[in-house]
Amino acid sequence: MNNSAPNNTPTPSWLERQFNITARGTTVKRELIAGLTTFLAMVYSIIVVPKMLGEAGFDTGAVFIATCLIAAFGSLLMGLWANLPMAIGCAISLTAFTAFSLVIGQGMSIGVTLGAIFLTGVTFTVISVTGIRQWILTNLPAGIAHGTGIGIGLFLLLIAANSVGLIVGNSAGLPVKLGNIDSLGVIAAIVGLAATIGLEKKRVPGGILLVIVVLSIFGLIFDPNVAYQGFFALPNFTNEHSLIGQLDIMGALNPVILPIVLALVMTAIFDATGTIRAVAGQAKLLDSKDQIIDGDKALTSDSVSTIFASLVGGSPAAVYIESAAGTAAGGKTGLTATVVGVLFLLMMFLAPLSYLVPAYATAPALMYVGLLMLSNVSKLDFTDSIDAMAGLTCAVFIVLSCNIVTGIMLGFVTLTIGRLLAGEWRRLNVAVITITVGLAIFYLGGWAI
User: pTM higher than 0.85 for the full model?
Assistant: First the structure.
């Protein structure tokens, strides 16, 4: 006679087994909302990336398809393999470098440019797989790690404020100034930010997404620049302008091109690594040693995505800062990134809908996330003034230079020289000195992007 009690424990669903949703303190609903929030915050890329590369002679229709494919591939890889709520897409800064420096400035052909991106991705992946990139991340001093988060928060604020015309460039005096405070976009963004802060304080589920949707509907009704342009558009993968498989690897192996590949690799290492660390910290996905959970998979995911980008005809890929909008909405697992990937696949067929989300609809989410990331200031240890000041130097110069790598470089230089002059050279290790010297040579040699 079998007296054993029956096992009534329900079998975990596939979503639970794949993403460890309960273990990370989240829910499927929250992850879906976070994924949609991240997608809406970064969907502008399918408009901006084709426009920039189009100016360099790329076929915009082909680039649109490539941009969607890269975001889908990278985000699905990050979600299903690394199980982290970070979305990947064509890096805007590297897209600008590709279009205006490589093709227009250097006169490189599109095929050779894609070949250079391929070599960048391969080198980047080798650095990630062999642990060199993780070594850099592990030896990132605490002050600079937190300073990167602060700086990216400030950077997000500036990007969002500029996208709606709240803060604009200045032709004389200080580099920026107040834009047209009475314009529809600026007013909508400010009200949206206030509404986001209020809804998040009340813990309204999907508050950030709700503001995006409401402002998009508002724009459709009252803004003549937001118009319904259709619902469905069939992508064409086989036309004569397709960029899939058009890379010229042998042409990119030219010794004249290799320094450009090095510049792309160095920029990608510190830019993307800093972004991944900041977003993981925002989502509280750091272990007891303050390292990213499954960080090696995250680092490899975005480097492999750059290889994929070269194959389909797009610019280098990276984790998007806008992923922090999803983590602020509660995303903690790869389901968030998986939702983003699926939506970008669908976007290839629903391209006209992307024009229904104006900049002022997503700007409040990015500004709110930027404000949240400023809380990293409280994590700086001001009893160690050199570490704290190096972190603040990193933060301030990320936003002043509009370049994450520049801020990180100045943070390392400040930390190293500060330790030496303060007689604290014993607190420096080989890793910090090596990174400092490497970054300084990179900039003084004129290779920085």
Answer: no
